[in-house]
Design a protein that fits this description.
It is a single chain. By secondary structure, this protein is mainly alpha-helical. The chain has one domain. The protein contains four helices and no strands. α1 packs across α3 and α3 packs antiparallel against α4.
Amino acid sequence: MAWVYLLAAGFLEIGWAVGLKMTDGFTRPLASVLTVACMIASFGFLSLALRHLPMGTAYAVWTGIGIVGTTLVGIWLFGDQASAMRLGSIALIISGIVGLKLVA
């Protein structure tokens, strides 16, 4: 169950990272409330995952999911650059996450 909590925390991290862009500097009330709610929920699920997973592994996987997901959403929705170097770097992050999962 800890890994499910960690996945939820990671996806919520993507939500609040993207939400920060949508708040326009916290000038949009609905986007701001949803972003803060995603932040709180993300930290909540991360804290549940930390009950059973090593701290370093959980934190690295949480941030890795956030980095990869936010980067892909940026490419898909906001037209961020999708260079070979950027995509290769994402692949390295994913391989690190998988490696951490295998040793945890």
